[in-house]
Amino acid sequence: MPKKKAKGFRHVEHRRVMAVLYTLLRLSVIGMMIAQFFNRNYENVFLCVLTLVLFILPSLIERKFQVDLPDTLEIIILLFIYAAEILGEIQAYYIIFPYWDTMLHTLNGFLCAAIGFSLVDLFNRNERFSLHLSPVFMAITAFCFSMTVGVLWEFFEFSIDQILLFDMQKDTVLNTISTVMLDPDHGTLAVAVKDITDVILVHSDGTQTALGLGGYLDIGLHDTMADLFVNFIGALIFSIVGFFYVRSRGKGRFARRFIPKVVQPQDND
Q1: For 46-80, what is each residue's pLDDT tens digit?
Q2: Which residue, 57, 120, 140, 253, is most buried by CB atoms nearer than 10 A?
Q3: What does DSSP say about strands 208-210 and 200-202: parallel, antiparallel, or unpaired?
Q4: Domains of the chain, residue spans
Q5: Where are the alpha helices (DSSP H) in the chain?
Q6: DSSP assignment, residue 119?
């Protein structure tokens, strides 16, 4: 009896931590939304509303699919949403801190691999499905799931940039480029151009504007490939962790913090 009581006490304490975190993050977003509304920055108001909606998703997933999200996973998801939307977009952390986007994409690869691994793990444990994958195939599935989500997100960024003329795929300033467009024979010989110091815009009326960027302006390619590469790293790390977790039959404490479990009927009592 004392052990059960202690376990229940810890569960209540975790719920209190989650409730406090939810409250603080929501109040911060609401305060930001009010400030952006009075500044007439309605695009940021929409981002705040979107953030509040995304905050609800973990609870909806738990109720809809009857699973229990580990506290560590839920906390990281909430902080990830806040860091991406509020700090990254509205507070311009993507510009202020050069590696902010890289950090989030690495974490995204890790989390998506955890989610993909969890889906397969739940199917493996559910008697209604005849799906029983080995640890190797579970790790590969989780990795592929994470990379697919990363690619789809880059498709989304590219589409928004092309249609709405945003800059979600952040530009990169380069000092060296290599292109076949400068081949004097109009062939496939790549010509390297080094020590580029500036970009000059030539307008339709013949006037020119020097941008003073210190190099050539790459429009999103390097950002996209860097995002996919760090997504690859994050996905690979959790896929390896998940592999050893299944191989040891669920004894790994680290992976357990990121893998949801099915709620049993007695858990609701």
Answers
A1: 999 999 999 998 888 888 877 888 888 899 999 99
A2: 120
A3: antiparallel
A4: 2-165+223-268, 172-218
A5: 2-38, 42-65, 71-81, 93-96, 100-125, 135-164, 221-247, 253-256
A6: H
